[in-house]
């Protein structure tokens, strides 16, 4: 059939109304699903934003609190270490004072050591008859032993004190270094705590969650600090015991040297008294010997005179006897005068022999007494020299006494008569 209007159809497939309706419904359903998904997305996004905001806020808050707690903890450990450091500094000071006092006493020991050496040298000047092994020499050797032993003990404690001071200085430097580290840590922690999201010095960092090298756990950190404080307290305890040992050693050395000095001076005075008594005895013997020598000398002179007096009577009786032998033969009678002259001759010769023997005995006695007199004089010289030697010990030992300690006060102490004197 012919048409008045030409109709052209597109070259696409035609859809039916039912398909068209289904397409519209499908688009409606898809739009409904998209709107629901959009709603769900917006709700979940809102919830996520709220949750992340709250989480971020509370994480920041909790970390600030943790930083505050950490700062407080570090401050607490720093204060403990500061207190320990001050205690260590005080201990070093008092230990150094004790060590200096011990070194001063050790240096002072050179004085009694020199005094004892001079005492020995002075006593060696005695002559051999007076070189006796007496109690004074034993006490001097004992005093020398006490001084040397005290010197050795004080030297050992001084060396121990030097080592302890070195250990305390090491732990002091360790504490000081740890305190400086904590100061730097606190400064850093304060800076970290003061940071917020509005700061201009925040930025992205490369691998911020990395753990630095040589990091330690919190337990190791606390254990290290406690070990340092414990070690410092242990060293201070040992230092206190060492100071007590130093004080005890010093006082014991002083007491022993003082007591032994008193013993030495007591025996020294006793020795001087014994030598004076022996010297006085020798002087008395010398005076008696001089008197007896004079008497014996006079007796010898008398004996010599008596012997001389017997010369002429002997000559007389011998001459008479000789002259009577010249009588004539018939007159040579052994009469009473002859017998009397013979008896007189025998008596005169007996008397002369007795006088000569007595003279020899007197001379022997005189020479023996004179030799003994010379020995007494020599021994008296030895006694005077020994007395002067031992008296010189008093002057030698004066440096061991105080400047205000006089000999009178020492004698009062030796005799224990202080309570018997009238107070000033």
Fold blueprint:
Blueprint (H helix, E strand, L loop, with lengths): L16 H92 L1 H14 L11 H60 L23 H92 L1 H14 L11 H61 L10 H9 L9
Describe this structure in words.
There is one protein chain. With 424 residues, the chain is an all-alpha fold. The protein has a domain at 283-402 and 412-419. It is built from seven helices and no strands. It has helices spanning 17-108, 110-123, 135-194, 218-309, 311-324, 336-396, 407-415. Helix 2 runs antiparallel to helix 6. The longest helix has 92 residues, at 17-108. The protein is rod-shaped, with a radius of gyration of 63 Å. The protein starts with 16 loop residues before the first helix and ends in a 9-residue tail after the last helix. 13% of the residues are buried.
Amount of helix: over 70%
Low-confidence runs: none
Average pLDDT, all residues? 86
Query: Could you spell the SSE succession in H and E letters?
Result: HHHHHHH
Coarse structural class: mainly alpha
Tell me the fraction of residues in β-strands, as a range. Answer: under 5%
InterPro entries: Tektin-like (IPR048256), Tektins (IPR000435)
Keywords: Cell projection, Cilium, Coiled coil, Cytoplasm, Flagellum
Family: Belongs to the tektin family.
Protein name: Tektin
Offer a quick outline of the entry.
This protein is mostly helical and 424 residues long.
Features:
single chain; mainly alpha; 7 helices; 81% helix; 0% strand
């Amino acid at each position: 059939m012919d048409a008045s209007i030409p109709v052209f159809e597109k070259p696409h497939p035609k859809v039916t109304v039912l398909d068209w309706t289904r397409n519209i419904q499908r688009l409606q359903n898809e739009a409904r699903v998209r709107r629901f998904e959009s709603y769900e997305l917006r709700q979940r996004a809102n919830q996520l934003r709220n949750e992340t905001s709250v989480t971020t806020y509370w994480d920041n808050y909790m970390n600030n609190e943790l930083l505050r707690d950490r700062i407080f903890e570090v401050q607490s450990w720093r204060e403990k270490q500061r207190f320990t450091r001050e205690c260590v500094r005080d201990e070093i000071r008092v230990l150094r004072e004790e060590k200096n006092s011990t070194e001063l006493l050790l240096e002072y020991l050179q004085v009694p050591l020199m005094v004892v050496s001079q005492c020995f040298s002075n006593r060696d000047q005695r002559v051999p008859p007076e070189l006796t092994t007496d109690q004074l020499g034993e006490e001097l050797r004992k005093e020398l032993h006490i001084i040397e032993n005290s010197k050795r003990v004080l030297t050992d404690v001084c060396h121990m004190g030097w080592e302890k001071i070195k250990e305390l200085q090491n732990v002091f430097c360790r504490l000081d270094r740890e305190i400086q580290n904590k100061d730097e840590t606190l400064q850093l922690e304060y800076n970290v705590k003061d940071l917020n999201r509005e700061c201009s010095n925040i930025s992205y960092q490369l691998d911020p969650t990395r753990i630095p090298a040589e990091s330690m756990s919190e337990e190791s950190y606390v254990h290290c600090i406690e070990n340092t404080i414990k070690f410092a307290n242990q060293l201070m305890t040992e230092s206190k015991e060492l100071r007590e040992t130093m004080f005890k050693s010093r006082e014991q050395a002083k007491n022993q040297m003082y007591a032994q000095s008193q013993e030495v001076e007591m025996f020294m005075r006793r020795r001087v008294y014994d030598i004076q008594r022996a010297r006085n005895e020798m002087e008395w013997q010398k005076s008696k010997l001089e008197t007896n020598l004079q008497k014996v000398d006079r007796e010898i002179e008398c004996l010599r005179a008596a012997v001389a007096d017997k010369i002429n009577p002997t000559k007389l009786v011998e001459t008479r006897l000789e002259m009577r032998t010249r009588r004539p033969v018939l007159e040579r009678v052994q009469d009473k005068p002859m017998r009397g002259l013979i008896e007189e001759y025998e008596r005169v010769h007996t008397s002369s022999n007795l006088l000569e023997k007595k003279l020899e005995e007197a001379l022997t006695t005189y020479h023996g007494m004179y030799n003994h007199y010379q020995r007494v004089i020599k021994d008296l010289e030895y006694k005077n020299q020994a007395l002067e030697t031992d008296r010189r010990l008093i002057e030698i030992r004066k440096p061991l006494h105080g400047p205000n300690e006089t000999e009178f006060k020492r004698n009062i102490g030796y005799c224990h008569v202080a309570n018997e004197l009238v107070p000033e």
